[in-house]
Amino acid sequence: MATTEKNRADISHLVEQFKAVPGGLLPLLHAIQAEIGYVPDSAVPTIAVGLNLSRAEVHGVISFYHDFKTHPVGRNTVQICRAEACQSMGSRQLEAHAKQALGIDYHETTADGGITLEPVYCLGNCACSPSVRINDDIVARVDAERFDELMANLGGAR
Amino acid sequence: MSFYIPQDTTALACGAEAVAHALQAAGVEPVRNGSRGMFWLEPLLEVDTDAGRIGFGPVSSKDIPSILDALEADASSHDLYLGQVEQMDYLASQQRLTYARAGLGDPVCLDNYQALNGFKGLKIALAMTGQQIVDQVKDSGLRGRGGAAFPAGIKWQTVLNCDAEQKYIVCNADEGDSGTFADRLVMESDPYQLIEGMAIAGLAVGATQGYIYLRSEYPVAHKLLDIAIERAEAADFLGDNIQGSGKAFHLEVRLGAGAYICGEETSLLESLEGKRGMVRAKPPLPAIEGLFGKPTVVNNVLTLAAISTILEQGAETYQNFGMGRSRGTLAIQLAGNIKRGGLIELAFGVTLREVVEDYGQGTFSGRPIRAIQVGGPLGAFLPESQWDTPLDYEAFAAIKAMIGHGGIVVFDDTADMAAQARFAMEFCVAESCGKCTPCRIGSVRGVEVIDRIVANEDRDNNLILLHDLCDTMEMGSLCAMGGMTPFPVRSALAHFSSDFTGEVRGDN
User: Fold this and answer.
1) Which residue of A has its CA nearest to B373?
2) Torsion, CA B3, CA B9, CA B14, CA B17, rounded to 10
3) Which of these, A115, B343, B371, B503, has the minimum number of CB atoms within 10 Å of its CB?
4) ipTM of model
């Protein structure tokens, strides 16, 4: 498949770029994810050889961090803050609403592939809670109504 | 007339971009400044007028035409008019050292920074020996602002004393505690101050490479830091030959990947080395065997930011703020269910009540405050009887609480404290690195035992079991994650025991 081959070429290219960087595995994984959207299992042997690590070590790092995905995600990632400041302003209700409105649980993607829902522990916007992150945009004071509006605004992008 | 509309995360989250567009549509090009940290007023529009720098807030794009009209006639007649921003009580009553420049101008404008005393501390440091710089830091009484409050000068001395080919300065910018945004505000409103502090640290201990370990949840800070580092390099404030001194210091931002534990310094070092963020046993101290096994200074953003002030204004000036062994200023972050949340920089010693009542003006919901959590997810929940405690490291330790990184999260009377205690354990399950058993297994059992207590299952015995489990976690864990998760749990049990009966509370 053309996509798989392109992914393989991208991964090899990035491994070359990061293999001499001290402690380069995390920057490499971020770069792969930025390029492909996730870190495919097939990338693990290439990374291991390039960085002179065992496959177990590479797998161990990928699975340790919440950010790294091993499967394709939706075109948009929506994160709801679960931390205490947001809880004090009703994020538990917001979580329940979001799951119901999108028809998915955390770590799942809507059937149309538009949205992946994730929890997050703190976006640093704690004086204007509850906070939601949509891709790289953070939105303050999100209640159920505002959440629906934000999802509707994703419109074509979904 | 110059117009200012912030580009920090909170202002953007509240709609600052749309306000900027509305200004541009009206033919006005605003300066994108940092935030002042008065977050309930964001987006805060400031205008330089003959009558001083006045503010309007919180503004939305649709307010722009009427504000522009009012500026032509009588600005004070506008509903959102705030008067002169720097004379507002919230700001005027603060003792701003670290945040003196926050919100004044474009955060990545190098000329601005230098015009406001920026890089003066670095220039002074360039004329000193490493030992002289370390002595200044010791004399200032500065203690680490990340939470552990270890004297910064002693840590630096240890690294200076080590004989090594390579040493490192690592900035802990993995600000993961809920209710905290002080690091973010420095990085987004005054990033050069952090860069300057790190360069001084490098000169002091003989380190030529620095890393800022930044959490991935801060995309705006990431963008601004990268720009600031590039410009500082171009102007020789970083690089191989700092200001022609022949001394080198290189700086790079490294992104975390969503693991709370990487805010713990040894876990952070593992992560920087490209590994799982597993906590290391101490000793060896990172100051002796840190990043890649080399002597390393690991300091929080606020600790390093304070360094430029200490060098510029002198150790004694800094030392004159504060109480007891807590010297200098504390960046208090007021968050959660609060009417006027934001950044409040004050000398140590102000009471919690003064902060939440005078600055915060009570809850956002308008209901009574029930509990206050200070110091992030590992901090105790404080009932009203403890609100007169002064913000001082030792005073908080005496009531089994902690100041930590200075975050204050307010809960109103609808909060269910049994649910919050359960969440503390649940959070530990999700974020434990897994290296030590009390933390990894203890947190899982903690959730189960709290569920049984709330369900009234063999209640008395399960309460004994929960305290026993908390003892094991406190005394047997390798780091503060497992060691302090019992703090919120025990304080909720001690002060809000009625929430653990499983009955629906009748007051709402």
Assistant:
1) A84
2) 50
3) B503
4) 0.96
Closest-CA distance, B73 to chain A, in angstroms, reads 33
Q: How far is CA B32 from CA B20, B22, B46, B67, B118, in A?
A: 8, 14, 11, 18, 19
Query: What domain range includes position A140?
Result: 76-157
How many angstroms separate the CA of residue B273 from the nearest CA in chain A? 4
How many beta-carbon pairs below 8 A join chains A and B? 146
Interchain pair A126, B40: CB under 8 A = no
Partners of residue B177 in chain A, C-beta under 8 Å: 122
Residue ranges per structural domain of chain B: 3-92, 110-319, 322-412, 417-501
Q: Of A6, A18, A5, which Cα lies nearest the Cα of A53?
A: A18
**With an 8 Å Cβ cutoff, are B177 and A125 in contact?**
no
A19: number of CA atoms within 13 Å, CB side? Answer: 14
Which CATH number does the domain B322-412 belong to among 3.40.190.120, 3.20.20.80, 3.40.50.970, 3.10.20.600?
A: 3.10.20.600
- pLDDT digit string, tens, across residues B188-243: 999 999 999 999 999 999 999 999 999 999 999 999 999 999 999 999 999 999 99
Q: What DSSP element (H or E) covers B182?
A: helix B182-189
C-alpha A106/C-alpha A119 separation (Å) is 7
**Statement to judge: residues A12 and A45 lie in one domain:** yes
Indicate if the pLDDT at residue B508 is higher than 50: no
* Residues B193 and B101: beta-carbon distance below 8 Å: yes
**CA atoms of B431 and B444, how far apart (whole Å):** 11
pLDDT tens, residue by residue, B50-75: 989 999 999 999 999 999 999 999 99
Span A88-132, pLDDT tens digits: 999 999 999 999 999 999 999 999 999 999 999 999 999 999 999
* B110-319 placed in CATH 3.40.50.11540: yes
What burial letters (b/e) apply to B20-34, b meaning 16+ CB within 10 Å?
A: bebbeeeebebbbbb
CATH number of B3-92: 3.40.30.10
Domain B417-501 has what CATH class? mainly alpha
Interface of A with B in 73-132 (CB under 8 A): 83-89, 120-129, 131
